[in-house]
Amino acid sequence: MTTLAATGVFRYSWLLLAFPVFGAAVLLLGGRRTNKWGHVLGVLMSLASLVYGLIAFFALLGQSGAARSQDLHMYSWIPVNGFQANIGLLIDPLSISFVLLITGVGSLILIYAVAYMAHDTDRRRFFGYLNLFIASMLLLVLSDNYLGLYVGWEGVGLASYLLIGFWQFKQSAAVAAKKAFVVNRVGDAGLTLAIMLMFAEFGTFNFTGVFDSAKSGGSGVATALGLLLLLGACGKSAQVPLQSWLLDAMEGPTPVSALIHAATMVTAGVYLIVRSNPIFNDAPTAQLAVTVVGAVTLLFGAIIGCAKDDIKKALAGSTMSQIGYMTLAAGLGPAGYVFAIAHLLAHGFFKAGLFLGAGSVLHGMDDEVNMRRYGGLRKLLPITFVTFGLGYLAIIGIPPFSGFFTKDSIIDAAWEKGGTSGWILAACAIIGAGITAFYMSRVMLMTYFGPKRWEENGVIGGAGAHPPFTEAERHIPHPHESPLLMTVPMILLAVGSVAAGWFLIVNYRFADFLAPVVGLPPDQHGIWTWPGIIALILAVFGVGIAWAMYGRVPVLATAPRGSVLTRAARADLYGDAFNESVLMRPGQWLTRLSVYFDSRGVDGLVNGLAATIGGTSGRMRKLQTGFVRSYALSMLIGAVLLLAGLLVVRL
Amino acid sequence: MSPAHYVFLAVILFVIGAVGVLVRRNAILVFMSIELMLNACNLAFVAFARMHGNLDGQVVAFFVMVVAAAEVVVGLAILMAIYRARKSASVDDANLLKY
Amino acid sequence: MHSLILANGGAGGTNLDPLFDEAFFWILAVLAVSAALAMILVRQAVHCALMLAVVMLCLAVMYAMQGAPFLAFVQVIVYTGAVLMLFLFVVMLIGVSSAESLKETIRGQRLWASLAGIGLAVLLVVGIGHAAIGSAAPTTSANNTDNLTGLAQLIFTTYVFPFEVTSALLITAALGAMVLAHRERSAPKPTQREVARRKIESGQVQPEPPPGVYALHNAVDLPAMLPDGSTTDRSVSTAIEQRDVQLGRHPQDTEALDLSVEERIDAELQLEAARLGRVTTSEPEPGPQTDEGTDHE
To answer: For residue A361, what is the enclosing H or E element?
Structure first.
């Protein structure tokens, strides 16, 4: 990997970070004084970064060849002999794609949030945290070394924690935030170990340094690095086995779910894997592990999404599944990197659009999330229905919408891998496509079609800042279309949902663009391939089954008991139960044992020693009878002993 | 009789005196036991004087007697004063140093 | 032990025959040890003092046997005669009657004391036995003076400093005794007027009568008679009273209030006989008639 020192407009790349950092600093440090205009500043900072990002993008397009990797050295962070850590930015096709995604989708979501959080007194703090998030995420994708990436990685973890638990007064939100952070930490341990291993083996953190050394290093080191990086990616991207936090993260406000847990943060893991492609290319075992993780999560998320009645949780399951697709693609090597990123960018659009639509529905239904209380909303929320519908068509892979192009590319790449693994992976991906169609259709049908169940039963709410209504005072909402500030971003994202896939995949536009970083896919296949067609057919099947179960038959107001699989899916396929029994309970027992050992053992030792001394002194005290004769006796005995000693020595 | 016999006798008397100090409760009797011990020492000194063939031991015994006399005088005066204050001559009465 | 070289007095032993020497030693040794043991075991303080006197006298003889005649006499005169008598005086003042109970109050004291004593004895005997205590050394012809002169020479030449110091000690001891035994008057000395007033107010104007006039065995134990014929217990020393109580003779047994002389004598004799365990007939002894009490002012 060769980079050029930054010239021209790239020398100001630090502005990309500076704007949101400035925004976050002002909003968070300024406090209540900034309440009135805080949200505006937040949006403006994000837009400023977007503007610069576009400038940089077009400037990059103007460059060619090796010049498409511009490295800006910002400053020396830890200049110690033998350990050189710098903060620098790398503008290359991969990072600039992410920058546009983050700032573009981010700005739209921020504009949306201005209206969505309009009634929240803490809106200014919300924008501060979002700016913090954007700054960290940009550092993550722009950093030119693993240490800076790690700083950004931790920063987004922090922002995620702060934003999930934004409504701190809600017990469930606080618990969910903690859970997200803890599970992320497990992944972070993997990333930390990978970075340490890199330094131990290669002596540098720089991408250039590491990738050049990785070629010369053995495959053992590369495999180890690959597996550790995979662990880090699992944590951040909610892949199995570290997936349990994503569904709980829906406790946060909808813009948070849209931006962080759909479009950007959860894709950081995929970015890590794709960025580290030289390492993975040398470690087939690690790549296999990546694909397996991707496939498993793909199906895992899809099955969970089928059984959730909470609209946001259903979409979260969908996110988990789609990122599984991306991970699967990233594990296929150069054949899949491009499609992983392409799907990532397309997913950013349509998933964010879906989430914003869900937010719009929530806004209209007084923060009720249970889809069993929705129904027939398409006429009442027309714009939401249309944008949501376009996102829906994109995600299930109906041509000519985005998902068709990107998802099919992934399925094809898996198929092209060949061998048993390729066949199995492709089968998983195709089946996943079918299930995706099923559960997304379910969501559509339950929400927008059918009778208006909320007119008889009312809603309970509780997903927002306000506490839920009690059973007695069930509230009948008045669903209405959202204000302009909410609908315009949704419309813009819908445009992305429609066009992004076609734009990226056709004519290998994106593949050529990304080639300097990840290499070209070896097999160039057309749009219509057999695996793709099978997936499409299965998707239509899925839609049909969903219509049969939820379209024709009236949706029940309360969830039925369901089959074994349904109940398992409702319990997140027992992910939480597994974590609890395997990890949490032993941890609790360990702490209890430690406490027991400490209080009985250590404290007992200390206290026992003190008690022994006290008891002994209490007994020895009795020697002081106060009688002269006792003392005289002890004198005599002492004299006898002395004499005995003298005689023993002398004789 | 060789001086050794006298010294052994002195040892026995000394030990009896020592045990007497520990066993008796009346202060006067404790004093008397101490006197017995001093007498035993005198006997030992005289025996050693005979053994060495000079009179130093006898001189020391003489001085011991003088000192013993002085000691008895003062000790008994103290005892009288204590008895006047407490109406009891028992050695066990002074046990305030008890635990 | 048999190779005693007998010189003419002084060091080296006495002029005693070896046989007598041994016999005397053993008799005196046994006597001294048994007296010492008795001293620590008997109850009465007076008896202990007397046992100590026996020990001291035995030791005096032993000094004499070992060629220290001066020391022997000093032992008898000073130690036994003065110091021990001082002990007896104090015993008298403090409580000849207070018999000490033989029960030991401190647990294990007797056991441990005897064990320690036996241990001490064993150790000392072993130690001394190992030491080379030679036989009596003969005197050199140069120092062929008698005991007293030799002692005097030593005291006033070699040991003159300790001599001076001990004399200072003696003075100090005498002073100390005076100071300790001194009683400060807590109230001013009562004047004659005060004494007279006190006497009349208490009702006992005349001095206490001395003990009884009629002497049977020991007059000091009979109460004196008052002018009106009653006896007063206050004339009998409390020590004697307590002795009587110990012996089972109660003061009221000797009350002479309504008894005639003969009856009193009879009663006395019967009591005596009962104590001795035999029956005797009373012999009336003529004694001076009692007056009907002389009034004293």
So the answer is: helix A334-364
pLDDT of res. C135: 66
DSSP structure class, residue C225: E
Averaged pLDDT in 10-residue chunks for chain B of 99 residues: 88 95 89 95 93 89 94 92 83 80
Helix axes C85-95, B56-86, angle to 10 degrees: 10
**CA-wise closest residue to A107 among A265, A255, A262:** A255
* Helices of type H across B24-55: 27-52
Say if B93 is an interface residue toward chain C (CB within 8 Å). no
Partner chains of A (3+ C-beta pairs under 8 Å): B, C
The beta-carbon neighbor of A628 closest among B18, B23, B91 is B91
Residue of C nearest to A632 (CA): C113
> Residue C294: its pLDDT value, please?
41
Q: Measured between alpha carbons, how far is B72 from A311 in angstroms, rounded to an integer? A: 111
CB contact under 8 A, A647 and C119: no
Quote the pLDDT of residue C13.
55
pLDDT of residue C292: 41
How far apart (Å, rounded) are the C-alpha atoms in residues C120 and A644?
Answer: 9
Closest-CA distance, B96 to chain C, in angstroms, reads: 15
- Return the SS3 of A310: strand
> What's the predicted TM-score (pTM) here?
0.67
Are C180 and B78 in contact (CB < 8 Å)?
yes
Neighbouring chains of B at 3+ CB pairs under 8 Å are: A, C
Q: What is the pLDDT of residues C19-63, one digit of tens each?
A: 888 898 999 999 999 999 999 888 888 899 999 999 999 999 999
Mean pLDDT of chain C: 76
A584 touches chain B (CB under 8 A): no
Inter-residue long-range contacts of B81-89, CB under 8 Å, 24+ positions, other chains counted? B81/C180, B81/C181, B82/B27, B83/C93, B83/C94, B83/C95, B84/C183, B89/B26, B89/B27, B89/B28, B89/C94, B89/C95, B89/C98
Residue C97: pLDDT band (50, 70, 90) is: low
Going by C-alpha positions, the residue among A83, A380, A154, A127 that lies closest to residue A255 is A127
Residues of B in contact with A628 (CB under 8 A): 91-92, 94
Looking at chain A, which residue has its C-alpha nearest residue B26? A629
pLDDT at res. A255: 93
Closest-CA residue of B relative to C73 is B62
The 10s digit of each residue's pLDDT in A88-134 is 999 989 999 999 999 999 999 999 999 999 888 889 999 999 999 99
Structure tokens at B32: 């008397």
Is the Cβ–Cβ distance between A4 and A65 less than 8 Å?
Answer: no
Chain B residues with beta carbon closer than 8 angstroms to that of A633: 22
> Which letter does DSSP use for residue C220 in this model?
G
Looking at the predicted structure, is the pLDDT value of residue A602 above 90? Answer: no
Chain A residues with CB under 8 Å of a chain C CB are 625, 627, 629-630, 633, 636-637, 639-640, 643-644, 647, 651
C42: its two tokens: 């008997």
**Cis preceding-peptide flag for A79 (omega within 30 of 0):** no
pLDDT classification of C5: cutoffs 50, 70, 90: very low
- Show the CA angle centred on residue A131, arms to residues A14 and A381, nearest 5°: 130
Q: Establish if C7 touches chain B: CB-CB under 8 angstroms.
A: no
CB contact under 8 A, C126 and A647: yes
Q: Is the pLDDT of residue A543 over 70?
A: yes
